[in-house]
UniProtKB/TrEMBL annotation:
Record Pfam families: ABM (PF03992)
Entry keyword annotation includes Lipoprotein: no
Signal peptide per UniProt: none
All residue ranges annotated as the ABM domain in the record: 4-92
Keyword annotations of the record: Monooxygenase, Oxidoreductase
Domain of life: Bacteria
Keyword Cell wall biogenesis/degradation appears in the UniProt entry: no
One Gene Ontology molecular-function label: monooxygenase activity
Annotated protein name in UniProt: Antibiotic biosynthesis monooxygenase
Classification via PANTHER family: ABM DOMAIN-CONTAINING PROTEIN, QUINOL MONOOXYGENASE YGIN-RELATED
UniProt xrefs under InterPro entries: ABM_dom (IPR007138), AI-2_Isomerase_LsrG (IPR050744), Dimeric_a/b-barrel (IPR011008)
Amino acid sequence: MTQLTIVANIIAKADKVELVKAELFKLIAPTRKEAGCINYQLHQDNANPAHFMFYETWQNRESWQTHMGQQHLKDYMVATDGAVEVFTLNEMSLVANILA
């Protein structure tokens, strides 16, 4: 089983930044309790507060796919319907781990 890294970029509509941010915060606690979740971090761009990024690490793709079907993600989708301008998701694999 290979670990999976997810980089999800969410850009909220200008008038919906606080709504999207609040709903993204609601995902953190339940997701971190999920089986297979190693890391789940939310970031906000310093220059563009409408741009959020999740950096996630999962034990494997299967655990991430299970995550994608969870009720808290469905609730997020309903709550932010029409509030997100752009959403991109990248599934990535670690190719080097060099520590200084």
